[in-house]
Amino acid sequence: MLVEIDGYFYRMLIFSEKDLSEREMRKIYDQLMNEGIPFRELPDTPCKRYNMKKVRILEGIRIDIVIDKDTDRIYKPQY
What is the 3-state secondary structure (H, E, C) of the chain? Predict the structure, then answer.
């Protein structure tokens, strides 16, 4: 599954072999935010802890879950 981390200054994609629900992604995100992980380190930390990988952004690719850092919203995009 592909997770987009979207913020004002950064847009990144991470890949997880495990399919995560919005609730599971929220739990992971909340844990990282409670630890005070800076935004720039946000993709690296779940990659290390949850065996995810950063991937290159390609136009037209379908994202499974979006983490919007500006609003702290996590959602599945509508296509």
Answer: CEEEEECCCCEEEEECCCCCCHHHHHHHHHHHHHCCCCHHHCCHHHHHHHCCEEECCCCCCCCCEEEECCCCEEECCCC
